[in-house]
Automatic annotation (TrEMBL):
Keywords: Lyase. One of its GO terms (cellular component) is cytoplasm. It comes from the Bacteria. This is glutathione-specific gamma-glutamylcyclotransferase.
Amino acid sequence: MSVNTIEHNRKRFNFEGIDAIWLFGYGSLIYKVDFPFLEKRPASIRGWVRRFWQASHDHRGTPEAPGRVVTLIEQPGAVCKGMAYRVSPHVFEYLDVREKNGYLRFSTTMTFDDGSHAEGLVYIATEDNEAFLGEASEADIARQIASATGPSGPNSEYLLRLAESLRALGDDCAHTFTIESHLRSVDNADR
Ligand code: SIN
């Protein structure tokens, strides 16, 4: 599958007759909210874990020196916390461009903090996209993040803002926090 998913996503879901739909965000969509929304609620999805296994050539890196950003990987029983937004379908005209580097929209069931559920969409960069990097040690991921920067800013800012947002949401994402602590050691070693 080509790395640019804009056209794939446009064909993927028929929004006809729908005024609003829930979107679950687990990465930059938690803290970089540059789109209009009708409602916002902390939520979680089951059966997925957050992993820095996707390359960023367009936001937090370049084609020559890609950064690393998060995608979701299936893991039975896991719970991934994030932020849900109720949005007008028009918002996907923008978000499909923002998330174009390998992410496809999938349907998901999300659970809100009061235990209620809603169906909605989530962007996932699956293993078959060209920008999928896959597993690496958390120390190596931190080193790659420390040296990458792109049009949206340093890759380290993506990681640190995500870690801060996950703490605020009460998510104990060991993967993100371990990479964050490696990044801080890389920074200290460079000083
Ligand atoms: C998301 O935040 O839900 C998708 C991945 C990202 O944009 O960082």
